Amino acid sequence: MSVHKLDHRLFEVMKAEHEELGALLREVRGQITSPDRTKREMAKSVAQLADLCGMHFNREEEGGYLREALLASPWLAEQVRTLREEHEALLEAIESLRVLTQSGVESPAWWTRVRDDFEQFAVGLGQHEAKENLLVQQAFCDDLGQGD
Global pTM? Predict the structure, then answer.
């Protein structure tokens, strides 16, 4: 019986995409707190974040590490299913934020809502990424530490 090993390129892609998501989250957070903030720039950044999340989640599910983790460790099927469900919930949340930033009248109440919805999304995404990292470690624990 052969052991399924993680293609380290998949892990590197996942890591790079998580870093890109983190940078975009920091950018949006900075715009929310900036005294020079504009609704137009916020809408643009949130749209970029929504698009990146959609592409990232699709890659994870279709040809990325979630599929590889399941092949390597079928006993993780329930965790993989949960992560896929979280993708759907996170995409719904960021799409709602996209709609909010593209509509409504810019006001202090609007900015408060944008901030609150964004922070809720960001916390959820951070928790989700932590679960993904744990899944990779569980599926490939003997493989990730090699080559350091």
Answer: 0.85
Q: How many CA atoms lie within 13 A of 120 on its CB side?
A: 14
Alpha carbons 96 and 100: distance in angstroms, whole number: 6
Q: 102-128, pLDDT tens digit by residue?
A: 998 899 999 999 999 999 999 999 999
HEC per residue, 19-88: HHHHHHHHHHHHHHHCCCCCHHHHHHHHHHHHHHHHHHHHHHHHCCHHHHHHHHCHHHHHHHHHHHHHHH
Burial of 41 (0-12, 13-18, 19+ CB in 10 A): middle
Please give the average pLDDT of every successive group of 10 residues along the chain, which has 148 residues.
56 83 95 93 96 90 78 88 94 97 92 97 95 84 48
Domains and CATH numbers, the chain: 8-139 (1.20.120)
